[in-house]
Amino acid sequence: MAKVTLFPQACKGMEDCGICALVCPQHLFTSSGEMNEAGYVPTRLTEPEECTGCQSCMLSCPDMAIVVVKEKGEEAS
Amino acid sequence: MAKVTLFPQACKGMEDCGICALVCPQHLFTSSGEMNEAGYVPTRLTEPEECTGCQSCMLSCPDMAIVVVKEKGEEAS
Amino acid sequence: MKAAVRLKPGTHFIEGNLALAEGAIAAGCRFMAGYPITPASEIPNRLSQLLPTVGGVFLQTEDEIAAICSAIGASWAGLKAMTATSGPGVSLMQENIGLAASTETPLVIVDVMRFGPSTGVPSVGLAGDVVQVARGSHGDYQIIALCPESPQEMYDHMIRAFNLAERFRCPVFVLPDGFIGHMREQVVIPPDQEIELAQRKIAPAGTTPLERQDFLDPEVAPMPVFGRGRQAHVTSSCHNGQGMRNLTDPEVMHAFATMPIEKILRHRDQIVEVAADYAPGDVVIVAYGTVARSARAAAQAARAQGLAVGTLCLKTLWPFADQEVAAAAQQARAVLVLENNTGQMLPYIKAEAAAHCPVQFLGPRLLGQIHEPNAVLTRVKEMMS
Amino acid sequence: MKAAVRLKPGTHFIEGNLALAEGAIAAGCRFMAGYPITPASEIPNRLSQLLPTVGGVFLQTEDEIAAICSAIGASWAGLKAMTATSGPGVSLMQENIGLAASTETPLVIVDVMRFGPSTGVPSVGLAGDVVQVARGSHGDYQIIALCPESPQEMYDHMIRAFNLAERFRCPVFVLPDGFIGHMREQVVIPPDQEIELAQRKIAPAGTTPLERQDFLDPEVAPMPVFGRGRQAHVTSSCHNGQGMRNLTDPEVMHAFATMPIEKILRHRDQIVEVAADYAPGDVVIVAYGTVARSARAAAQAARAQGLAVGTLCLKTLWPFADQEVAAAAQQARAVLVLENNTGQMLPYIKAEAAAHCPVQFLGPRLLGQIHEPNAVLTRVKEMMS
Amino acid sequence: MSLAEHPLRKYTRPHVKKTTTCPGCGNGIVAQAILWAIDELNREEGLSMDDFVFVSGIGCSAWIPSPLFAADTLHTTHGRPIAFATGVKLGLPRQKVLVASGDGDLAAIGGNHLIHAARRNIDLTVVMVNNGIYGMTGGQTAPTTPRGLNTITSPYGTMEPEFNVAAMVAAAGAPYVARWTTYHPRQLKRAIKKGIQKQGFSFIEAISQCPVQYGRVSKLGRATAILEHFRDHSLKLAKAREMSEEELAGKITVGEFCDRQAPELASQWSELRARLGKEQG
Amino acid sequence: MSLAEHPLRKYTRPHVKKTTTCPGCGNGIVAQAILWAIDELNREEGLSMDDFVFVSGIGCSAWIPSPLFAADTLHTTHGRPIAFATGVKLGLPRQKVLVASGDGDLAAIGGNHLIHAARRNIDLTVVMVNNGIYGMTGGQTAPTTPRGLNTITSPYGTMEPEFNVAAMVAAAGAPYVARWTTYHPRQLKRAIKKGIQKQGFSFIEAISQCPVQYGRVSKLGRATAILEHFRDHSLKLAKAREMSEEELAGKITVGEFCDRQAPELASQWSELRARLGKEQG
Amino acid sequence: MRTELTIAGVGGQGSITAGVILGAAAVTYDHQYAAQTSAYSSELRGGFAAAWVVLSEEPVLYPRVIAPDVLVAQAQDSIERFAKVLKPQGVLIYDSDMIAQPPAQITRAHPVAATSLARNEMQAAIVANMIMLGALCQVTGVVSPGALEKAIADAVPQGKQELNLRAFALGRERVG
Amino acid sequence: MRTELTIAGVGGQGSITAGVILGAAAVTYDHQYAAQTSAYSSELRGGFAAAWVVLSEEPVLYPRVIAPDVLVAQAQDSIERFAKVLKPQGVLIYDSDMIAQPPAQITRAHPVAATSLARNEMQAAIVANMIMLGALCQVTGVVSPGALEKAIADAVPQGKQELNLRAFALGRERVG
Ligand SMILES: Cc1ncc(C[n+]2csc(CCOP(=O)(O)OP(=O)(O)O)c2C)c(N)n1
Ligand SMILES: Cc1ncc(C[n+]2csc(CCOP(=O)(O)OP(=O)(O)O)c2C)c(N)n1
Ligand code: SF4
Ligand code: SF4
Ligand code: SF4
Ligand code: SF4
Ligand code: SF4
Ligand code: SF4
Ligand SMILES: [Mg+2]
Ligand SMILES: [Mg+2]
Fold this sequence. Notes:
By secondary structure, chain C is α/β, with parallel strands linked by helices. Chain C has helices at 16-27, 42-50, 64-76, 87-102, 132-135, 151-168, 178-182, 250-266, 268-271, 290-304, 322-331, 346-353, 373-384; strands at residues 10-15, 31-34, 57-60, 81-85, 107-111, 114-115, 121-125, 144-146, 171-174, 184-189, 233-235, 274-277, 283-288, 309-314, 316-318, 334-338, 359-362. Helix content of chain C is 37%, strand content 19%.
C-alpha cells in the first residue's frame, strides 16, 4: 500500500514523455486529457489502489512530478 | 665473422654514452682515449676478430656511429 | 542518405551559413575539420553532406584544437582546407593559428561570431572577435580577415578567402556574426565556370629543401606540399630560408618573424577592400559587418535630409585599411565609428584618423542588438551641431 | 627533500623568475597550477618547492588549459591562485581567460614572453604577447596587465597583481619577457610585515544568490566563495545580477558584457601606473618592459648632450594608459614609441597621441635583441632635425 | 501537496520551478539519481548540500546541477569541468566535488582532463551522461554514437566506432568505474552514492535518452522507445565478459567495471602540507 | 668508410651530420629502430622515404624525425602531432604517416588526440618515446614518472601514479599496441614495422633513457645505468598477466598489448567518396 | 518601398516557416529583395517563435524590423509582444481562434480562424500557418499569390504540397 | 661608472657560474649594482657559454653588454666571438692553456694558465673558472676580493668552499 502524489504542473506529458507509464509494473498511468499551464497533457493514475509502492515511477520521472510514499515507513530502496 | 666499422666523429663517447660497451655480449668496446672534434672521447674495438656480428652495438648506438656488416650476406635480424 | 546536391546557379533565398558552405565548395574546398558550435553549426552540418560528393572529406574532431591542426595537415597534404567555429573555438585554436601563419599554410577559418565573452549568449550575434583573430596568438604575425555583411557576401567572401589563402600562403578568416549567419536573404550563385579560382604555387618536382627558399622568400614562396617526394621540412620553430630550424642566428630570427608579415603587407593593395561612399566635408561613418548596413541606411536617410554624410565600410578587417581610413579622415569633417561591440577596432581606426579630424564612437544601444539607423542619425546630427 | 625555505628579507642577486616566485608567496599565493615551458619553467620549479611549505598546493597539470581551469577552481575555493606560462600557454588559455573575466574570478596569470610566433625561439625574450593578453579571448572583456622591467619589479608586481586581482575580482597578468625572466639583478625583499596585502571581499555568511548582487554589481561585488554554504551559482553563460543564467533579456546581456569591463575602467586611476619623466617640448619616448630601460638610458644620454628628451614608461599595459599618453603627447614635441616587437601597442598609443603631435615607431634593429640606447638616440636626433 | 513537497525539493533552488530539458529527457532521471543518492547520504551520514560543490561543462547534460541544485555550483566551459573541479577539490579538500556533464563534454573535447584525473586519482565523482549524441547543438555525431548511425554530421553513416568510455577510464587508472542506463535508476543511484563515498576518482557513466536529437537521428523517436531499447539490450558486465565481441555487438554492458583502492591525491597533499608545515614551523 | 656509408644514411638528410641529442639519449635508438624498420620494408615491399610523412610535436623526442629524416616532415606544436597527422592521412590516404614524439607531448598535453585517434582507428603509426620525464624543459614530472620519484616539480616525491599509456590506448580502441624498451632495439624495430604494415591505428611505446634529466632526478645517472634498469625490470606481458599488482610493482611490462582487425577510417572515406562520386556523376 | 512584417506565434505553429516562405516567394518568384530573421525560445512547448521579414524593391539595407507594417499573430502572446510596435496605420492579421479581441487601437485588424479551419476543414492542425499566409497575401498583396504558391511547393515535403496549397487558398478566401 | 664584462668559454667550463658569482659579490657585499645575463648553446660538449655582467655604482639602466671593458676568455672560441667587440682600451684575461696567442691589437692582455693550474695544482679541473675569477679580481679590481670570497662561499656546495677559495687565491697570484 502506498500513496502516489502527482504534480501535474511539473509533468511534461504522456505524449511527449510517458516514462511513468512505461516503467509502472502495474500499468497504472494514463493521460489525464487536460493541458497544464506549460502546454503538456500530464498523466494520471487509473487505479491508485493497485499501486505496490515500488517507486519505479518516482525514480524514473525526469521532472520530479511524482512522489510515492510507502506506508508503514518503508524507505526508497 | 663480421666487419665492424666505427665512425668516431659521430660517437658521443664512452664516458657520456658507452651503450655499445654495455650491450656487446663479447665486451669488445673500450675508450679510444682520443677526443673527437665535438669534444667526446669515442670508443674503439679491442678485439675485432672476436665480434660475432650480432649487431647489438649497431642497433643500440644512438648516434649511428657503428655499422656491423655480417659476412656471407647475413642480414640484420 | 543519397548523395547531397549543391545549389544550382541562380537566385536563392538562404541563410548566411548555408551560403557560406556553398561558397566553400565552389571555392574548391576539399577538406573541412570542425566541431559543432552555435551559431556556426550549420556549416559543418551542410559540408558533411556536400564534401564527400565532390571527393572531399569532412572530419568532426574531438575538439577545436584538433580541428585546426588537422585542417593544417590536410593543407600540407595539398587540399584546400578549412575549419569553421565561433569565438570559443577560435580561442582554443589560437596556438595553431600562429603555427599556420608562421609555417605559411593556406587555410580558411570561419568564425561566426557570437555574444561573448566566455559562453555568453550563443544564439546572439556580436562582432566581438575582430581583434582576437589578428592578435590572439602569441608573438608577431599577420593574418587576413574578411568581414561579410550579408549572406551573399558569405558566399563571395569564401571564394575570395580561399583565393587569398592560396595566393599568399596564410590563414584567412571569414568573420560574419551570428546575425548574418542565420539571416536569410537573396544569394546569387554563379555557374562554376564563372568563378575565378586561385591555386597555390607548388615547389617544382624533384627539389629538396636545400635547393629552395621555402619559407623566407620575400615573395610568396612555392609550397612543397607533401607526398610528392620534395622532402618538405616544416617546423613551427624558428627556421631559415630552407625551413631548417635555427635558434641562434639573430638575422634568421628576425626574418622568421617578419617575412610572413611583410609578404602580406607588401601586397596589401591586392588584399584590402573597402566600400567608400563619401565626399569631402562629410561626416564619414566607418563600419564593418552587420552594422555597416546600419551605417549605409543612416547615411541614406541623412542625405535624404540634405546632410553631408558618407560611409567607409571595411570589407577586409586585416590587414587593417590604414591608408583608406587616413584618406577618408583627411577629407572628412569628422569620423564616426560604428562597431557591434564595445569598440575593438576603434584604436586602430583612431590611430589613422585622429591626426586629421575628430573621431567618435557609437556602439549599439544594447550589446546584442544592432544599431538602429535613427540612433546613428541622431548622433551624426549631434556631431554636426 | 627537506622543506624548502623562502629567501630572507634583504638584498639578493637573483634571476627574475625566482624573484617572481618569491613575490607570489609573499603576496599570499597558495595555489599554483602550471605546465612547464621555456622561459617560465623556473616559476613552477620553484613554487613546487615553496608552496607546500606555506600550506599551499602546486599542481602540474596535463596542459595549460587544465592549469588555468584548476587555478580558477582553486580561486573559487577561496585561495589566492595563479598560473605561469609563456605565449603558447596563453594562447591555449584564451577561452578560460574569458571565463575568469566574466565570472569575475581573482586570478594572476604570469606570461614570461618569448620570441614568437608559434614555437619560435623559446629561449629568447620578446614582448610579443602584449595585445593577446587583452584581446585574445573572444568577445568584449577587460583584464589588468602589469609589465615589469627588472627582477625587482617581478617581485613587486606579483604583490601588486594579487592585490589588484583580489580587489577587483579579475584576472591580472604579469608580463615580463624572457630576458627579464632570466636576468639576474639586485632584488630587495622586504619583511612580510611591511607588505600590504589585499583580500577579496567575501559574500556575507548565510546569504544565497537571490539575496545578493554577485556579478553585476556596479562596484566590485563580494565573492561567494565555495564551501561556506552560500549556494554560489557561477556560470560562464550570460547571467543576471544574481548569477542566474539568462539568455533572452537584452538588458541583462548588455550588463553581463559591460559591467565587468566598467568596474575596472571606473577604477582605472587606482590601477594605471606610469613612470613619467618629461618636460613640455620634449621628444617623449614611450616604452614598456625591458626596452623601457633602453628608453631611459637613451634619454639620459640625450640630456647629457643637452637635448630635450623625456620618457613615459608604462608599468600597466591594461587598462591602457590612455589619459597619460594623451597628456604626454599634448606637451610633447613628438612621441617615439619603442616596443620590443613589431609595434603591437602602437595603434593604442597613436590613437591617443596622434591628435596632439607626430608619432613614430622604433623596433629593435633585429627582433630578439633589445634596442641599444645609441640607436634610440640616433632616431631621436633625426626626429629633432 | 504543493510542488515544494517533493522530497528532493529541499535540495533544489526554490526559484527554479521547472527544468528546461525537453520532455522525456534522461537528464532529469540522472539529476534525481544524484539527489536520491545525496538524500540517502544525508540520512545515513548527515551529509548536506553544503558539503558539495557541483561542477559542469556545457551541453544539455551540464544543466543537471546548474541552476537546479541548491548548492555551490560552477557551470564552466565546454569540456573543462574536471579541470575546474580539480582546483576546487585541492582548494577545499573536505568538500565533496561532483561533476555532472555530457558525453561530448567529458569524453570528446574534455577527454584529456578525464583520463588525467582518473590517472591522478583525485577524489571527484564524475557522472557522465552518455546520450550518444550532441544534444544541445542539434544532433551531431558524438564519440559515443554507434557506428553506422546517420547523424547530422555523419549523414552517410558514422564511420567511427562507439567509444567505450567506462572501460578506457578504468584503464587510465580510476579506482571506481560503473555504467548503468536511465532504465536502471536504482542502480544508477547506488553507483553514484558509492562514487561519492569512495575516496578517489569515481566515474559513473549513465547511458541516457535524448529523445529529441538522438530520437530523431536514430528514428527511435520517443523517450520510451529509447528506454525500451536500453531495457532490451543491457547486459551485466559479468555475463558480457564471457561473451565474444560478435555476440556483444549492439549490447550495452552495465555494472561495475572496477572498484579498488589507491592513494588519493588531495589527501596526499594534506599530509605533505602537514609534514612540511611542521618541518618549517 | 665515410659517415655517409652507414646503411641508414640514405634515409637521412645529407646536411644533418649529427644529432643534437645528449650523449646516450635513447632517442637515437628509437630513430634507428624506425629507420631499420623502413629499411626492411624497403627491401621487402619496395617502400621508400617518399612514401612517408613524419609528424612530431615539441620535446626532445620530437626531434627524432625532424630534421634528421630525409622525407616530408612536419614538426608541429606541443601535443598536437596526432591531430596534424590525421589531416595529412585523410588528405593523402596512400602515404604512410608516422608520428614520433615524447610521452609529455603525446600522453600529457596531447592525450585527447591520442585516445580519439585510437578510437577512430585512423591508419597512423605512433611511436611514443616514454622517458618518464619532461626532458626538454629540464626534468619536470611527466604523467609517466614513477610514483615517489622526486623530480624538479615534485621535489617532495611524485604523488601521482605512473601512466600505463599502452594499456589505456588499447582500451581506447587501438587495434595494434606494443611496448618495448630501448634495451630491446630488435623488438622495437619489429613492432614499428608491424605498426607501419597494419592498416589502422598502431601505437608503439618505447621506454627510453633520458640520462641527463631523468638520470639526474632518479640518480641513476648514466644512460647505461638506465638501460641496465630496463634490462633487469622488463617483463613479458604474457607473464605479467599471471602476476598480482604487488608483484608487478616496479616492473616494465613489454610485448604486444593487442593486435586485432577493425574498420579503418581513411579507407572508409575513400570508399564513401567513390560511392557518392558515382551517385553524383 | 520598404515593408516590414512580423509573423509570430508559439513554438510548433510554424510562424518561422511562414516567414521563410514569404521571403523566398518575394526573392525567387517576385523579383523583390527580402531579409528574414527569426527568434525562438528553447522550450519545446509554450515558448515563443517569431519571424521578421523586410521586403523591398531595392536591396534591403537595414535588415531588422523596427516597427512592422504588418503583424501576423498566431497567439495571444504575439499580440502582447508585438502589437505595441506595429506602425500606427499597420495591418494586423490574427488567428481568431487564439486571440479573442485584438487591441482596440489597431484599426486595420483582419481575423482568420486559422486553427479551427486547419483542424476542421483540412484535418491537419499543422497547416494553420499556411492559412495565415493566405490571409496575409489576400489582405496586403505584398507578395503575389503565384509566387507564394510556388514557394510553398518548393518548401514543403513531397506529397504534402496539395494540402498546403489548399490551406493557403482557404486563408485567402476566409480572411475577414 | 658603468663597467661591462664578458666571461666566455665552452660548455662545462663554468663561465656562467663565474659571472653569477661576480654579480652577486658586487650586489651583496660591495654595494654596487649589477645586471647579469647569459647565453649558451644546447650542445652538452663543445658548445659555447657566456655570461655578461654590467656593474655600476648607480642602478643599471641598459642591462646588456654592448662593448665589454673586460673580456674573460676561457676558450679560443671566446676570442673569436668577443674579441672584436672589446673596447679599444679594454682588458683581456685569458686562459693561456686554451688560447695560444691573443689578438695583437689587444694591448692589455693578461694570461693565466687556469686549466693546467686547476688540474695540476688543485687536482680539480672544475675550478678553472675560480682561477679566472681570481685573475679578473686581481687585474681589474672591479669587485673587491673580500666580496668575491664571500660570494664564492655562498655559491658553492658545502665542503667545496675551501677548494674554490684556494683556486680564487691562486688566480690572483698567478695572473700575468
Ligand atoms: C569550445 C566550445 N566548443 C563548442 C561548443 C558548442 N557546444 C555546446 S554543447 C556541445 C556538445 C554537447 O554535447 P554533450 O556534451 O554530449 O551534451 P548533451 O547536449 O548531449 O547533453 C557543444 C559542441 C562550446 N560551447 N564551446
Ligand atoms: C603549449 C606548450 N606548452 C609547453 C611547452 C614547453 N615544452 C616543450 S617540450 C615539453 C615537454 C617535453 O616532454 P616530452 O614530450 O616528454 O619530451 P622529451 O623532451 O621528454 O623527449 C614542454 C612542456 C610548449 N612548447 N608548448
Ligand atoms: S510506485 Fe510502482 S506501482 Fe505504484 S504507480 Fe509508481 S511504478 Fe506504479
Ligand atoms: S514520467 Fe513524469 S514527466 Fe513523464 S509523463 Fe510521467 S509524470 Fe509526466
Ligand atoms: S656486433 Fe655484437 S659482438 Fe660484434 S661488436 Fe657489436 S655487439 Fe659486439
Ligand atoms: S653507443 Fe655509439 S655513441 Fe655511444 S659510445 Fe658507443 S659508439 Fe659511441
Ligand atoms: S536535446 Fe536531448 S539531451 Fe538536450 S534536453 Fe532535449 S532531449 Fe535532453
Ligand atoms: S634531455 Fe634527455 S631526452 Fe632530451 S636529448 Fe638530453 S637525454 Fe635525450
Ligand atoms: Mg551528449
Ligand atoms: Mg619525455
